[in-house]
Predict the structure.
Amino acid sequence: QEKFLIRGVRELLTIGSDLDELLLIDEIEIGLHYTTLLPLWKLIFTACKQSDIQVFATTHSYECVEAFSKVQVEMADDASKLFRIQKKDGVHKAFGADIHALEAGIESGLEVR
């Protein structure tokens, strides 16, 4: 199962490399077991650095955000960032969390999705 996942993500990232170094993935965790999220993010972070691809991925999964944060910290990748979109005063706004803020939020049990 993991080999198939990795092969599929590599193919996605290869396609992304033909699309001006930008790849959009909606609901990245859909259909994946939570145990595959850590290797998925490791592969994405590595492939993005090697191929200079920028990935925008959406999720509603706390486990997916946790896996993202763990890989972000493990790889000391301060270029990646999580954005939370929230409605405030009737307007949707994006709030960014850098590597340290995201890690601290997860460790404190805050809602970071």
Summary: Residues 1-6 have pLDDT under 50 and may be disordered. The radius of gyration is 14 Å. Residues 2-17 form the longest helix (16 residues). The helical segments are 2-17, 37-51, 62-74, 99-107.
